[in-house]
Design brief:
The complex is a heterodimer of chains A (355) and B (336). Chain A has 355 residues and is an alpha/beta fold. Chain A is 29% helix and 22% strand. Chain A has an eight-stranded mixed beta sheet, sandwiched between helices. A four-stranded antiparallel beta sheet of chain A has the order 2-1-4-5. By secondary structure, chain B is an alpha/beta fold. In chain B, 32% of the residues lie in helices and 22% in strands. Chain B is built from eleven helices and twelve strands. Chain B has helices at 51-58, 86-95, 114-126, 130-143, 149-152, 162-174, 192-209, 220-226, 244-249, 254-262, 302-306, and strands at 9-20, 23-35, 40-44, 67-76, 79-80, 97-100, 180-184, 212-217, 229-234, 237-243, 312-313, 324-325. In chain B, helix 3 crosses helix 4. Classes of the chains: A alpha/beta (355), B alpha/beta (336).
Chain lengths: 355, 336
């Protein structure tokens, strides 16, 4: 359905280069700067126009922070976020404001992200008040148009958010994100708060809208089976860095990074025969991003850990066409123990050079 | 009993309503099930399906008012939990039935050490002195896989990660060797790799200790991984019930069938478009005289609005022991 996106020669809509987002920690009476939580620590990727990039990982891996830093809801510590030729990370406030209509966000919690004192119509119209010179009448017409697009009955225009169910509220949030004809939407766990039977409704809606308006998505989620359904390529994050970035089918058929492998093996399938298979059970918890382990951040839990992993941090590198992996199994010279690793290549792609 | 051993827990016709200013909400309507030793019963349903309220009703954890238990029997061994005195029920809750809640952040008391919280039921229900309780607490923490158990007794909940806290909750629930462990969405707040750890732990414990487990979840994947039997709830009722493999391979209720189709798969063919269940779950303000799923059901017939379907067996086993379904519709090519 969106098979054009696999052609690599096209200019990407989004280019993220070595994005870092560190949150300072202050301690003591004098609030001395004593360290940083490295929520995002050198992340690079591109998104083609019309493509959906899935961003998966466990809580605390920095996936939501990437989404927010991309739209400059946080001030990135370092790195570039180029959207249609403009570096979002360094734009002046006024230039950023003019850029805002092209990039929007759908939030996880439709309860918290909608103002309870505004009517549905006021919520959807607000971006137009801020960014366009439409008349009240034009805005109302556009609100109705958007409500039709997301499947909300026009009769509900003057109701308040609390009168809607979770799935309907998420539709309101999507309508608001669409109000200014954006090109790029960050969907931050848009279905996590919804019941299973409602999740499919919202995902189908997002796909329909993508086809209709040619949208580009960054789809952030911890739901690996839903990401497999919606994404074209998938980035797996661990502790502030990308462990693997691969085309969807390749990743799910044969994950290369040991963390991606463990993560996929932990998913419970709604099929008793498959759900009881042998799985890779990781030991321990995710280390703190304020104090990440030396070398590879996954080395403390990795079932295939080698000596080099505790010393040198592996860089993200293209190990197969279109597949980027940050793991010594594939890049270290004389790699052993990676029986299924096919011909490791040593070329560092430009996306891999991150520090 | 037809299949040998008597059940540890036998629930018959449980009815719970909530009285609100806007009228009565029929949260649980004639729910029946039983549980045998060493067995895991998975209970699935969406929010508002009545799965948690059912389990809270069993052991008197619902505040009354607004909740009112209208009828039914809850037989734990030879005692009806709905009829015994509150003090006795308190004893049952700590010693016979253990409970693990969804959110390990909020269900541990932040101002007491983990040790005190594990030792409390031991001293309260088992009459242990401090030394015995401490020794048993260390044993329990080791059982649930917490390293350095003796030292960790002095730690506070905030010093543990989410997965570790859930292990502590399980240790507390297991403290008095309960006959039944009720786990209400115990892995929902956890990451998938941590969830996998907890699922392994529970499977291991069940083999070691042989208790019966009720596992409540909305995640069909978790059910597929841990349950022996499944009970699918919708609108406060049991829609379908059966052995796990049979139910996933051969779902009979239109709700179960639709639910299984809405979930995208992680392997195999990728569907171009997800199947959806149109509409919203019901608000249970009407007396249950019709099928609660009729408004969203693709097979709804006239009779569905007139008569609430009773559970009927779809295989040879007696009702409640094999595969049964509460639906007027019969899939084509079957004769039940």
């Amino acid at each position: 359905m969106r098979d054009t996106v696999t052609e690599p020669q096209k200019e990407p809509l989004i280019r993220v280069e070595d994005l870092k987002m560190h949150f300072p920690i202050y301690t003591g009476v004098f609030r001395r700067h004593s360290g940083d939580v490295k929520a995002v620590d050198g992340v690079s990727f591109t998104i083609q126009p019309g493509e959906t990039l899935g961003l998966v990982g466990e809580s605390g891996c920095g996936k939501s922070t990437v989404g927010r830093a991309l739209l400059r809801l946080y001030e990135p510590t370092a790195g570039r976020v180029v959207i249609e030729g403009d570096d979002i990370a360094t734009l002046t406030p006024e230039a950023l404001r003019l850029k805002r209509p092209t990039m929007q966000m759908v939030f996880q919690d439709p309860q918290a992200s909608l103002n309870p004192r505004m009517t549905l119509s006021a919520i959807i119209a607000e971006p137009m008040v801020e960014h366009t010179r439409m008349t009240a009448q034009e805005r109302q017409a556009r609100v109705f148009e958007l409500m039709d697009a997301v499947g909300l009955n026009r009769r509900f225009a003057n109701r308040y958010p609390h009168e809607f169910s979770g799935g309907q509220r998420q539709r309101i949030g999507i309508a608001r994100a669409l109000a200014l004809n954006p090109k790029f939407i960050v969907c931050d766990e848009p279905i996590a708060a919804l019941d299973v039977s409602i999740q499919a409704q919202v995902v189908n809606l997002l796909e329909d809208l993508q086809d209709k308006f040619g949208l580009t998505y960054l789809f952030i989620s911890h739901d690996l089976s839903m990401v497999r359904h919606i994404a074209d390529r998938v980035a797996v994050m661990y502790l502030g860095r990308i462990a693997e970035l691969s085309p969807r089918d390749a990743l799910y058929a044969h994950p290369l990074h040991p963390y991606a492998e463990a993560l996929l093996s932990a998913v419970n399938e709604p099929d008793p025969n498959r759900a009881r298979r042998e799985r890779i059970i990781l030991k321990g918890d995710v280390p703190s991003p304020a104090n990440p382990p030396k070398g590879c951040s996954f080395s403390t839990r990795c079932p295939k850990v080698m000596d080099i992993c505790r010393i040198t941090r592996p860089e993200l590198a293209e190990v197969q066409p279109g597949r980027l992996v940050a793991c010594h199994l594939y890049t270290a010279a004389g790699s052993t123990g990676a029986s299924e690793a096919p011909e490791p290549k040593h070329n560092q792609s430009q996306q891999g050079a991150s520090s | 009993m037809p299949d040998g051993a008597a059940p540890v827990l036998d629930v018959r016709g449980l009815k719970t309503v909530f009285r609100t200013s806007g009228g009565e909400i029929h949260a649980v309507n004639s729910v029946s099930f039983h549980l045998k030793r060493g067995e895991v019963l998975g209970v699935v349903g969406e929010s508002g399906s009545g799965k948690s309220v059912t389990m809270m009703s069993l052991i008197g954890l619902l505040p009354s008012p607004p909740a009112e238990i209208r009828g039914g029997e809850v037989m734990l061994g030879d005692r009806d939990l709905l009829k015994i005195a509150p003090e006795d029920l308190r004893q049952v809750r700590g010693a016979k039935v253990g409970f693990v809640f969804q959110d390990p952040m909020t269900s541990l008391n932040p101002v007491f050490t983990i040790g005190m919280q594990i030792m409390e039921p031991l001293r309260e229900h088992m009459g242990m002195d401090k030394r015995q309780a401490e020794a048993r607490a260390v044993e329990l923490l080791e059982l649930v896989g917490i390293p350095d158990a003796k030292k960790r007794l002095k730690s506070y909940p905030h010093q543990f990660s989410g997965g570790m806290r859930q292990r502590v909750m399980i240790a507390i629930a297991l403290a008095c060797n309960p006959d039944v462990l009720i786990a209400d969405e115990p892995t929902t707040a956890l990451d998938v790799t941590i969830q996998a750890q907890i699922l392994e732990l529970v499977k291991e414990l069940r083999q070691k200790l042989g208790m019966a487990i009720i596992w409540i979840t909305h995640d069909l994947g978790v059910i597929a991984a841990v349950a022996d039997r499944v009970m699918v709830m919708y609108g406060g009722q049991v829609a379908e019930h059966g052995p796990v493999k049979e139910l996933f391979a051969n779902p009979r209720h239109p709700y179960t069938r639709a639910l299984l189709k809405t979930i995208p798969s992680i392997a195999g063919a990728r569907e171009a478009r997800l199947q959806v269940i149109e509409g919203q779950p019901p608000i249970l303000s009407e007396a249950p005289t019709a099928c609660p799923f009729r408004a969203r059901c693709v097979h709804a017939m006239e009779i569905c609005t007139q008569e609430n379907p009773a559970r009927r067996p779809v295989d040879a086993a007696p009702l409640g022991h094999g595969h049964d379904v509460a639906c007027h519709w019969t899939p084509e090519g079957t004769d039940a």
